[in-house]
Amino acid sequence: MRLFAALHEGAQQGWVWLQDPTLPARSLIRIKNPDNGKVVYCEALQIDENFLDTYNQKPRFTISTPKEALVISGWYRAALGGVSTQSDVHLSIKPCNSWWGKFKASTHHPQTVVRVAAWLGLISVILGLWSAVLGAASLWAAEPNIAVERDVQKATASEVRGSSAIELGSLLEAFMVSPDTQPDWSMGAGSSTPQISWTSSGVEERPDCTLVYESCRRGTTRVLLNGREMQHLRQRLEPVPWKLFMVSNALAKFGPERVEIGPSCDTVECSFDFMSPLISAGFSLVKLCEAGPEARYTGYEVKKDRKLSYMLVSDSTGSGGTSRSLTLFIKKPTDPQILCADAERALLNFE
Question: What is the pTM of this model?
Answer without folding.
Answer: 0.54
